[in-house]
Amino acid sequence: MHRSQGLLFNCRAATMTGPAPYGLIENAAIAVAQEKILWVGASTDIPPALAALPRHDLGGRLITPALIDCHSHIVHGGNRASEFEMRLKGASYEEIARAGGGIVSTVAATRAASEDDLIAAALPRVDALIAEGVAVIEIKSGYGLDIETEIRMLRAARRLAGLRPVTIVTSFLGAHAVPAECSGDPDSYIDEICIPALRAAHREGLVDAVDGFCEGIAFQPPQIARVFDAARQAGLPVKLHAEQLSNLGGAALAARYGALSADHLEYLDETAVKALAGSHSVAVMLPGAFYTLRETRIPPIDLLRRHGVPMAVATDMNPGSSPMCSLLLAMNMACTLFRMTPEEALRGTTAHAAAALGLSGRGAIAPQLRADFAVWDVEHPAELAYRIGFNPLHARIIGGALWH
Which of 39, 31, 25 is nearest to 3 (CA)? Predict the structure, then answer.
């Protein structure tokens, strides 16, 4: 059912705004028109000018902002189930990568896939997220590591938005790994392939942000800085995989460039936390990778709280370290593994996830924001992070249109 305007009522609204926990409004009503929220408040306070709008009864259900997956690698070729077995036999992530596995193995499969192949493989993953109330998915390149395939990945990501009722945000991740043909010469790869690929993709309008992987098995901060300089010249925001396996100072580098986000952050120190707070960057928690790699060092959640750094939560859906297509499961993992609260997890997949993508008009239920909602068969917002392997979604409302 589709509506261009209407009044949603008989619901509990977790607006994710205001001082109340979850921004919760009991017996709420939400007025929507032209894909925007006109008004939200208690049903007893509906303005007379809106009272005559067509009404839709939500049956007392919980309504939240539609969820946002702000870090994913959904577009890729092949899978790495064999590496899953290797890790269970004792091989580390770094050992697999140095032996030619890891990201580089996915590169071969992605290079061999056509644009249509990449879309066909990605659609079931996109559908799994949509089925959990997701309205925005960030998708990274980074499995091409040559100009042609990086652009093909980004074209595929853009096309997904025309095939499903979902917003796709793209990130250029050419600085993800050094391809085999450039082994031992990461600087030449950055200058001769990565940055030219970024510029070519940007000319096609395929890039919303620029990402990188700052780690011993990937790129050092000075190399990432050159990519970020190219992003700055193109007027593109940046984000960074940082401090996942060690502390190379990636998060501090990201903060110096005013990054939208720094992601992973298991080895983050307090100096870098302060830098992220000063730059208003979002710390993106990725418990799926922590779980899959059986890591033991959790991100410094208390430090991030103490210094007021907003925390997002995402799936990090990728074929190697986080083959997870459930944002609800990521929320549960953020609570059980990282000790985030259920409210922090929900803010992390709504308001803070929107901030991590630079989307000022999403992630909350407030006037003038986009009318993207998830309607749930639950009594309390904490249930969204509490249950495991259970999806209580009743419906998505995207731009004011109801999708069952």
Answer: 31
Average pLDDT over residues 235-246: 98
Chain CA centroid to CA 87, Å = 25
Could you give the count of Cα atoms lying within 13 Å of 356 in the half-sphere of its Cβ? 35
Terminal C-alpha separation, the chain: 8
Cα dihedral sign for 140, 98, 227, 327? positive
Burial of 322 (0-12, 13-18, 19+ CB in 10 A): buried
Amino acid identity of residue 24, one-letter, is: L
Average pLDDT over residues 89-95: 84
pLDDT tens digits for 135-150?
999 999 999 999 999 9
pLDDT tens digit sequence for 197-219: 999 999 999 999 999 999 999 99
Beta strand pairing call for 67-69 and 55-65: unpaired
Nearest to 138 by CA among 334, 286, 301: 286
Given a contact cutoff of 8 angstroms between Cβ atoms, the answer to whether 156 and 186 are in contact is no
Q: Which two tokens stand for residue 5?
A: 């305007």
- What one-letter code names the amino acid at 44? T
Q: Give CA–CA dist 12/63, Å, rounded.
A: 6
Name the amino acid, one letter, at 176. Answer: H
221 CB neighbour count, 10 Å cutoff: 18
Asked whether the beta carbons of 23 and 381 are under 8 A apart, the reply is: no
**Cβ distance 259 to 209 under 8 Å?**
no
Q: Could you count the other beta carbons within 10 Å of the beta carbon of residue 230?
A: 22
What pLDDT was estimated at residue 115?
98
Q: Judge whether 239 and 356 are in contact, CB under 8 Å.
A: yes
Predicted confidence at residue 5, as pLDDT, reads: 85
* 399-to-27, 54, 210, 240 alpha-carbon distances in Å: 22, 16, 27, 30
Q: Residues 309, 254: contact at Cβ < 8 Å? A: no
DSSP one-letter code for 219: B
Residue 296 in contact with residue 332, Cβ under 8 Å?
A: no
